[in-house]
């Protein structure tokens, strides 16, 4: 299983359809807004349940979006492989995210037959993507294809 460097396996619409089918009762709220060979962009609409004391978006909310973005940028290249799983996630919280929609941009740093490594930047609506509120590096384990 390897990705062709010049094609997408799943576009934004297909990624959202896959997400809905894989987690029909989850109510996650985030959506892939765009997908191309450079990566994907996702949006998580703001909800008061995402806040932590002090009025800032919680770390678990940001980690969840970063993880989802890394998974979906991987699937955008390898296709609908539900059993790809997080093997590592390192996140740096860089600034206090204000209560607003949260955006993620993920790009693949490496895609191999058994693992992907992605970089994810997070920022809030109205903020500058060049000045993220968090930055994550995420690795995904890709299962071996089953044979006969």
Describe the structure concisely for a colleague:
The protein has 148 residues and is of the alpha+beta class. The chain has two helices and eight strands.
Set out the fold topology.
Blueprint (H helix, E strand, L loop, with lengths): L11 H11 L8 E6 L2 E6 L6 E2 L3 E2 L1 H20 L6 E9 L8 E10 L3 E10 L9 E8 L7
Antiparallel strand pairs: 1-2, 2-6, 3-4, 5-8, 6-7, 7-8
In CATH, the homologous superfamily goes by the name Hotdog Thioesterase
**Count of alpha/pi helices:** 2
Overall number of structural domains: 1
- What is the helix fraction of residues, given as a range? 10-25%
CATH architecture assignment name: Roll
Defining traits:
six-stranded antiparallel β-sheet, 36% strand, 148 residues, alpha+beta, globular, Thiol Ester Dehydrase, Chain A, two-stranded antiparallel ribbon
Polypeptide structure, described:
- The chain has 148 residues and is of the alpha+beta class.
- The protein has one domain (12-141): Thiol Ester Dehydrase, Chain A, CATH 3.10.129.
- The chain has helices spanning 12-22, 59-78, and strands at residues 31-36, 39-44, 51-52, 56-57, 85-93, 102-111, 115-124, 134-141.
- The strands form 2 sheets. The chain has a 6-stranded antiparallel sheet. It has a two-stranded antiparallel sheet with strand order 3-4.
- Strand 3 (51-52) and strand 4 (56-57) form a beta hairpin.
- The two termini are 15 Å apart.
């Amino acid at each position: 299983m390897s990705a062709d460097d010049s094609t997408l396996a799943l576009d934004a619409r297909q990624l959202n359809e896959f997400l809905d089918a894989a987690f029909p009762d989850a109510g996650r709220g985030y959506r892939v807004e765009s997908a191309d060979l450079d990566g994907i962009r996702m949006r998580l609409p703001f909800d008061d349940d995402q806040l932590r004391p002090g009025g800032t978006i919680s770390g678990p909310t940001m980690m969840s979006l970063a993880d989802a973005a890394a998974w979906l940028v991987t699937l955008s290249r390898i296709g609908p492989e539900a059993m790809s799983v997080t093997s590592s996630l390192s996140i740096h919280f860089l600034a206090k995210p204000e209560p607003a929609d949260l955006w993620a941009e993920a790009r693949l740093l490496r895609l191999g037959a058994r693992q992907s490594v992605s970089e994810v930047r997070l920022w809030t609506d109205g903020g500058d993507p060049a000045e993220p509120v968090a930055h994550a590096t995420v690795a995904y384990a890709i299962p071996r294809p089953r044979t006969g």
